[in-house]
Write a structure and sequence with these properties.
Radius of gyration: 21 Å
Strand content: under 5%
Structural class: mainly alpha
Helix content: over 70%
Number of helices: 12
Number of strands: 0
Largest sheet: none
Oligomer: single chain
Length: 284
């Protein structure tokens, strides 16, 4: 490698780290507007309970996965064995920081539906819907099942990376996160459509989220292209899929807020609508 190549490598790594920390800050910032809005309004009305519940599920899985890819020598060795052309996982330290921070904030948001904790007047009576509870418990059972397969097929140690291994458990956690990310937006988008309003749903979280998604994909593409092997992207389907799904729904919410329901900020307060807003969003 020539001196010019070394300098270029330093520049690319520096840009990648910069993109990583900026998107981490942007995504991290996206978790604050909603709980702040709930606190300011002293109400969770306008927020579908399925959204924060699936956020808790998804980000717990995401945090476990990224922490293992960053800290575990065993997982990193298994990844290198499966991706010899690009042996370094594309998970960065900022991914770890983002995941741990996200778990804390989404748990706070979900907890705001419990009036005994926050003492909100006229709290929302929403309950998680059966389909979402099915996803929650199905995910737990699925991860536990894959863990048992790995243990019985390969044992606890000295696993063949090309056979069932711990990395497969992490990939399963990643797919749970993808499912949770995709599903969590649907009840909220339908809730906004049903009320013809986005009041109670913070648009700032969406703007921060969209910015983070764009920069996340940019970092992933930069890292993979610099490594000379695009398997760096396919080797991290969680990060790529998460960003693309989030950005697609962000566009939907931006359209709802700024175009479809612009100026229609009042949540209906008629008796029928109040009763209806407390019902689950998906049929039981």
């Amino acid at each position: 490698m020539t001196i010019d190549d070394e300098e270029w490598a330093h520049v690319v790594r520096a840009v990648s780290r910069l993109l990583g920390w900026i998107y981490t800050l942007s995504w991290s910032a996206s978790f604050y507007p909603q709980p702040r809005l709930n606190w300011k309004r002293r109400s969770t009305q306008g927020l579908a309970i399925d959204f924060p519940l699936l956020n808790v599920l998804g980000f717990v899985c995401y945090s476990i996965s990224t922490c293992c890819f960053w800290f575990s020598p065993t997982i990193r060795q298994q990844y290198a064995a499966r991706h010899p052309a690009s042996p370094e996982p594309t998970v960065q330290l900022n991914d770890v920081a983002f995941g741990v921070h996200a778990v804390i904030l989404v748990t706070v948001t979900y907890s705001q539906f419990f009036s005994r904790l926050w003492r909100f007047p006229n709290p929302s009576l929403q309950r998680a819907t059966r389909p979402v509870l099915g996803i929650l418990w199905g995910s737990i059972v699925g991860v536990a099942g894959i863990t048992l397969v790995v243990v019985f097929r390969s044992g606890w140690k000295d696993q063949d990376p090309l056979d069932w291994a711990w990395i497969d458990v992490l990939y399963t956690l990643g797919y749970v996160k993808l499912i949770a990310t995709f599903v969590k937006y649907i009840p909220q988008a339908f809730f906004n459509y049903k009320r013809k309003s986005t009041e109670g749903w913070s648009i700032w979280q969406i703007l921060f989220d969209l910015t983070g998604g764009v920069l996340s994909v940019a970092q992933l593409v930069l890292d993979a292209s610099f490594g000379g092997d695009w398997s760096g992207i396919t080797g991290n389907p969680l990060k790529l899929g998460l960003a693309n799904i989030s950005m697609a729904f962000d566009v939907v919410f931006i359209t709802q807020h700024f175009i479809l329901y612009r100026g229609q900020d009042d949540v209906s307060t008629t008796p029928d609508d109040e009763d209806d807003s407390q019902r689950p969003l998906l049929s039981q």
